UniProtKB/TrEMBL annotation:
Pfam families: Steroid_dh (PF02544). Belongs to the steroid 5-alpha reductase family. Polyprenal reductase subfamily. The keyword DNA-binding does not apply. Its EC number is 1.3.1.22, 1.3.1.94. The keyword S-adenosyl-L-methionine does not apply. Its main location: endoplasmic reticulum. It is a multi-pass membrane protein. It comes from Equus caballus (Horse). Pathway: Protein modification; protein glycosylation. Residues 123-241 form the 3-oxo-5-alpha-steroid 4-dehydrogenase C-terminal domain. GO terms for biological process: dolichol-linked oligosaccharide biosynthetic process; polyprenol catabolic process. One of its GO terms (cellular component) is endoplasmic reticulum membrane. This is Polyprenal reductase.
Length: 241
């Protein structure tokens, strides 16, 4: 449900941002008003429209891949989450897209593009951030595949929902490399923003603590369930935690 909402909502925001950037179509009045409430919709000196565009693309692609994994890769148990967690997750993916859009430099209801050419804004951190995003996403996908295979037979049919010790890729270093990759994906977006965007670093901080907590609980569970669990494996950060 989280990723369905994210794909639809953030895809909607990306569509409006794309139209504004490349066709000069102003944002709808209600969206422009919402961004004003969030403290945006004004010219932000030093901020590049390309940064927010790329980050919104990354966010949408990330949600689309995770939605694909939910249907075709991951094998979930019957564990339920609290209704408060469920509601928070829905709200989070709506707000995170608006957070990205609020970083777009605005001139009235239109996006302000320095030099009137978006590609001319390309900087080294856009390239680095893109490479980090692809790298982190590839590792997260691989880790989810490894977890899914543990509950399937050689024909790809789900045969149980029990826990097994995963091996391979980043699992050789930490118990929850998928959570670590999630953090790295958000860090790649911070890099794409040029490393100076305080608002997005606050988002990264939230992701760090939420993923670290989940990783710690998973690590504790694995150690209590499996006597032979690798002792060198950390919970979240390789060689550290």
């Amino acid at each position: 449900h989280f990723y369905i909402i994210s794909v639809l909502w953030n895809g909607f925001l990306l569509w409006h941002l794309t139209q504004s950037l490349f066709l000069g179509v102003p944002f709808p009045n209600w969206l422009h008003g919402l961004l004003r409430i969030l403290g945006a919709a004004q010219f932000q000196e030093g901020e590049l429209a390309l940064s927010a565009f790329l980050v919104l693309v990354f966010l949408w692609l990330h949600s689309l891949r995770r939605l694909f994994e939910c249907f075709y890769v991951s094998v979930f148990s019957n564990v339920m989450i609290h209704v408060v967690q469920y509601c928070f997750g829905l709200v989070y993916y709506v707000l995170v897209g608006l957070t990205v859009l609020s970083q777009v430099p605005m001139d009235g209801g239109n996006v302000y593009v320095i030099g009137k050419n978006l590609l001319m804004q390309a900087r080294w951190f856009h390239i680095l951030g893109t490479m980090m995003f692809i790298w982190s996403s590839a590792h997260q996908y691989k880790c989810h595949v490894i977890l899914g295979i543990l509950r399937k037979n050689k024909a790809g049919v789900v045969i149980h929902c029990n826990h097994r010790i995963p091996f391979g890729d980043w699992f050789e270093y930490v118990s929850s490399p998928n959570y670590l990759a999630e953090l790295m994906i958000y860090v790649s977006m911070a890099v794409t923003f040029g490393l100076h965007n305080l608002t997005w670093w606050l988002v990264v901080t939230y992701v760090f603590f939420s993923q670290a907590l989940s990783a710690f609980l998973s690590h504790k569970f694995y150690k209590s369930k499996f006597v032979s669990y690798p002792k060198h494996r950390k919970a979240f950060l390789p060689f550290l935690f």
